[in-house]
Design brief:
Helix content is about 35%, strand content about 25%. With about 250 residues, it is of the alpha/beta class. Strand 2 and strand 3 form a beta hairpin.
Length: about 250
């Protein structure tokens, strides 16, 4: 039986264990129990896939399948998202230059990072590449969206909208959605750079607003970023207004 949806969907699992596949299996099994207890059975396939990739990389590549080394994992379910953090005692890897596209069908390896990027909403490595935080967003309950906030939410973003700070922005946007926001206006006058993770957040925010009949709009978008949005055809999904010349 699923828990009453009036109750928060929360749960957590945290463990450090020897770098072995047997310990990986135990963690995954316990993680699936947490998901089931939270009434999130529909997410089990995706989260198991993500966990096996992240934990498998830590055990087999980060620690070379050496049980004298350690893997740490923290899994948490919150009302708006699921997070998995995995770290190993190995030297890490150069994630910045790792290919994100699927390899040729004849290749036997090289699909792990692509799977994470395809199935998770955000994938963030530390500098050395031996720790990763993965997030999967959950849909906002309609009952939590019942309030109507008068007028659009107006926010001025800072210089960078990228993987490093996107989680804080996601929290901010989600809170406004939970408070009943139907429209959001984002001032890009200070924004100097954006990456694919930041773009993904904008698309996710637009999708959430559109589900409740709302809208997302961007104003004062610099020339380079405006061109990027146009190339990505994002201007076809939400309003993107360029900065005025000389502004």
């Amino acid at each position: 039986m699923k828990p009453d949806r009036a109750q928060p969907r929360t749960g957590a699992l945290e463990r450090s264990f020897p770098a072995s596949l047997d310990e990986l299996e135990r963690f995954v099994a316990d993680m699936l129990e947490v998901l089931t207890a939270c009434g999130l059975e529909d997410n089990c396939f995706v989260l198991e896939l993500i966990a096996r990739e992240a934990l498998g990389n830590a055990v087999l590549h980060g620690c070379n399948d050496d049980p004298t080394q350690t893997v740490s994992a923290r899994f948490s379910v919150r009302p708006d998202r699921i997070e998995l953090c995995v770290a190993d005692s190995g030297p890490g890897f150069d994630w910045r230059n790792a290919p994100e596209c699927p390899p040729e069908p004849t290749c036997e390896t090289g699909r792990g990072l692509c799977i994470l990027k395809c199935y998770a909403d955000s994938v963030e490595f530390n500098d050395s590449g031996n720790s990763v935080r993965i997030a999967k967003l959950l849909p906002v309950e309609e009952k939590e969206m019942s309030k109507d906030m008068e007028g659009p939410v107006q926010l001025t973003l800072e210089a960078n909208v990228s993987a490093k700070n996107v989680q804080a922005l996601r929290e901010l946007f989600k809170q406004h959605l939970l408070d009943g926001a139907r429209s959001m206006e984002l001032d890009f006058s200070k924004v100097q750079s954006i990456d694919s993770v930041g773009i993904g957040l904008l698309v996710a925010t637009h999708n959430s607003l559109a589900k409740v009949g709302g809208s997302l709009s961007l104003s004062n978008v610099g020339q380079d970023i405006f061109q990027l949005f146009t190339l990505m055809r994002l201007d076809k999904h939400f309003n993107v207004a360029p900065a005025r010349a000389g502004g």
